[in-house]
């Protein structure tokens, strides 16, 4: 079984991150992970304020970053899966992580942040992606998930307070949603880490999405000083 970091960012795309994907992979490996799902931010802010690019230009930049991270992962013996964290404009702080082969979806829909959650869920599902609500009950802007437009929610986020994570776990049980565990890494593993275990046979982006859709996996929450 491989321990996977399900929620992490690199500074090639995410303005809030402070390390490259190569540095992220080195830190993740030192912390005890055997792979990552790279969940860089896909937001209007990133495109128009940070990069000042047209959406389709940014889309290709985003995909190139994923491809480069996969190459770097192979070089380091780390599994790297594609994902993105979409910040929906119509809501306050509503971030939906899409896991799986996101490249075809983003090329078909280069401005997913303009969609409603229902539209995002329908389009992502058509591409076989797994959609889950990231840090729904964090203190900065607590969000009540719309369960009918989700495959799962993040029930443990290392940067969410304990009460928020507890609320997420309770919501997931009541709604019958799959619970994800992740660190929400932006620069250094200097506190608590979290991830899920996948079998070695999960090798491609499509494999990863299909595995999450089954909703049966073990997780790990552990301290790190890396």
Structure description:
The model has no long low-confidence stretch (mean pLDDT 94). The protein starts with a strand and ends with a strand. Helix 1 crosses helix 3 (55-76) and helix 3 (55-76) packs antiparallel against helix 4. Strands 1, 2, 3, 4, 5, 6, 7, 8, 9 and 10 form a 10-stranded mixed beta sheet that branches. It is built from 7 helices and 10 strands. The protein has 226 residues and is α/β, with parallel strands linked by helices. It has a single domain (2-223), classed as TIM Barrel.
Topology:
Layout lengths: L1 E7 L12 H11 L3 E4 L2 E2 L1 H8 L3 H22 L2 E9 L7 E5 L2 H7 L8 H10 L3 E4 L18 E6 L4 H14 L2 E5 L9 E7 L6 H10 L4 E5 L3
Helix pairs in contact: 1-3, 3-4
The CATH class assignment is Alpha Beta
CATH superfamily: Metal-dependent hydrolases
> What is the H/E string?
EHEEHHEEHHEEHEEHE
Count of folded domains: 1
Number of helices: 7
Through-space gap between termini: 22 Å
Percentage of residues in DSSP E strands: 15-25%
List segments where confidence is low: pLDDT < 50 over at least 5 consecutive residues: none
Second rung of CATH, namely the architecture: Alpha-Beta Barrel
Biggest sheet: strands, sense, closure? 10 strands, mixed
Percent of residues in helices comes to 25-40%
Overall pLDDT: 94
**Gyration radius, rounded:** 16 Å
CATH fold-level assignment: TIM Barrel
The computed structural class is: alpha/beta
Shape: globular
Count of β-strands: 10
